Amino acid sequence: MGWNRFDAFYGERSSQQDIYAGSVQPILRHLLEGQNASVLAYGPTGAGKTHTMLGSPEQPGVIPRALMDLLQLTREEGAEGRPWALSVTMSYLEIYQEKVLDLLNPASGDLVIREDCRGNILIPGLTQKPITSFADFEQHFLPASRNRTVGPTRLNQRSSRSHAVLLVKVDQRERLAPFRQREGKLYLIDLAGSEDNKRTGNKGLRLKESGAINSSLFVLGKVVDALNQGLPRVPYRDSKLTRLLQDSLGGSAHSILIANIAPERCFYLDTVSALSFAARSKEVINRPFTNESLQLHVLAPVKLSQKELVGPPEAKRARGPEEERIGNPEPPEPPASASQTFSSLQKLSSMDPAVLERLLSLDRLLGSRGTQGTPLLSTPKRERMVLMKTVEEKDLEIERLKLKQKELEAKVRAQETVDPREKENCSPTMLRPLARRTVTVAKPLKKAVVIPLQLIKEQAESPNANIHILKKKSRKRKLEGLDATESKEKAEDCWDLQISPELLAHGRQKILDMLNEGSARDLRSLQRIGQKKAQLIVGWRELHGPFSQVEDLERVKVMSGKQLESFLKANILGLAGQYGSPS
Ligand SMILES: Nc1ncnc2c1ncn2[C@@H]1O[C@H](COP(=O)(O)OP(=O)(O)OP(=O)(O)O)[C@@H](O)[C@H]1O
């Protein structure tokens, strides 16, 4: 098994600090971006999972180090005068024989795991303690750790008989309008060891515990496989562990799996199995999701009465002491209370029909581009939310383009005033809104010269500046009978892109850089690269080293020569489009 199947390897001389700084610390900042993260220690019993996660006073492990840094980070970012107010809470639970037990309140019994309408996983009734310092954390954590179920096995005198899950939540509230709110969750998990009962000598209760441990780890493996294969059903619900981690494992979060191995010969099979699981987990593509909500009036400019803005008084009363702000003083209460806010990623049913229509066209567009996965409106909620967020971003982009268009029109009008003789040559299409404008071929030129909007200024300053030229291809294509998206794409194919060699070389280099340095997620931002192709490219790169030219893509077998041509065209157009789209 090649080491490139893993992100890092820590040997017997590696210290706790090496592991923490090398692999865990870098993900903490994502919590402040409202994203979820998880760190799991996985491996056979007695291999050192608890040592890695918890450590000892002399060699503190991942948990104390991460808490120390996270609290420091939140103190800095949430300081007075900074845009966001931050608060941190902790919960600590164990999953023992498929029961969810609150280690901070053992009397509460088996708790249920629920999913809210935004796809967030939560456990009603789970104790959440506000913490502002490491001393606060220790005060709750140390006694709770003693509540954890451990028992002797032949391999480990204090073997963890449960999965211990420490949940740290970072809540953020924007101090000024638009008063956004974010929540990032960090799961730090010491999994129970995968067990070979011949060696552990388990009998009776130990054997029963072992069955539950092994079956939930087996489901964890199935979840990883389903995520890797992009299966429509990921069996999160088949175990409490995976159900709990549904919004924080792979796919939508930053996940780190630490595979603890015991290198002795007698553990050979355990080692192979742990490494194979870790290698499969590495394949899971992460598309971290920011859990951010906005206020109603920001999204829908509908006037609300004062009563509506303040919200029902019970909404505020309903907030328990656990939800009270901690640490930094309460930010000035925004016009709407927290209960009056709702996610920008609201339910489809309550959406503006125009937005829904755009969503549907986006869905069609994604479908026509061969985007991986099921169509938008039947994907799981979280996926849907991500795409709805994209729609919002597209709206902003449209606004930006409209603004550019106005600037262009103003320029044209100014030109007309300066030289009225040129008025006759000015095609009326130039004054139409960008989205509706079609490229027409002016007869005397026999080709349409399309100048990227933002380049106009540069060109005026430098007459030799690069321009893109679109020239009609000689062969004709029938565009009738195609739907709007298809005909747009086909129309694009009817034009040959002639671009200055300098810009072409620049575009190719950018694509090459992306192929060599981009993660699978980055690669998906390229035109005509979906999840599967991105994975293949990353895999090829890991096996064969960097791409020497864009044409190497043919060797990866992700596209044919012809497809490569259109891939280049679409992406170079896209790059040019960053300076103004020649549509
Ligand atoms: N890198 C290490 N350095 C020093 N001691 C270690 C190291 N790794 C493990 N140990 C020791 O080995 C013993 C077993 O380790 P640990 O309890 O962490 O295993 P585990 O994988 O959590 O086991 P289980 O799955 O049974 O809970 C402990 O006494 C621990 O202190």
From TrEMBL:
Does the keyword field hold Electron transport? no
Q: Does the keyword Lipid metabolism apply?
A: no
Q: Name one GO biological process term.
A: microtubule-based movement
Basic and acidic residues bias: where?
A: 314-327
Q: List cellular component terms (GO).
A: microtubule; microtubule associated complex; nucleus
Q: Where in the cell is it found?
A: Cytoplasm, Cytoskeleton; Nucleus
Instruction: Using the record for this protein, list the coiled-coil segments as residue ranges, or answer none.
Output: 391-418
Sorted UniProt keywords: ATP-binding, Coiled coil, Cytoplasm, Cytoskeleton, DNA-binding, Microtubule, Motor protein, Nucleotide-binding, Nucleus, Ubl conjugation
SMART domains (alphabetical): KISc
- Residue positions annotated to bind ATP are G43, P44, T45, G46, A47, G48, K49, T50
Classify the source by domain of life. Answer: Eukaryota
**Kinesin motor domain spans which residues?**
1-284
Supply the SUPFAM superfamilies for this chain.
Answer: P-loop containing nucleoside triphosphate hydrolases (SSF52540), RuvA domain 2-like (SSF47781)
Q: Name one Pfam family in it.
A: HHH_3
Q: Where is this region: Disordered?
A: 309-344
PROSITE patterns for the chain: KINESIN_MOTOR_1, KINESIN_MOTOR_2
- Which molecular function terms from Gene Ontology are attached? ATP binding; DNA binding; microtubule binding; microtubule motor activity
Q: Which family does it belong to?
A: Belongs to the TRAFAC class myosin-kinesin ATPase superfamily. Kinesin family.
What's this protein's function? Kinesin family member that is involved in spindle formation and the movements of chromosomes during mitosis and meiosis. Binds to microtubules and to DNA. Plays a role in congression of laterally attached chromosomes in NDC80-depleted cells.
Give the protein's recorded name: Kinesin-like protein
Which lineage do the record's taxonomy fields give for this organism?
Eukaryota, Metazoa, Chordata, Craniata, Vertebrata
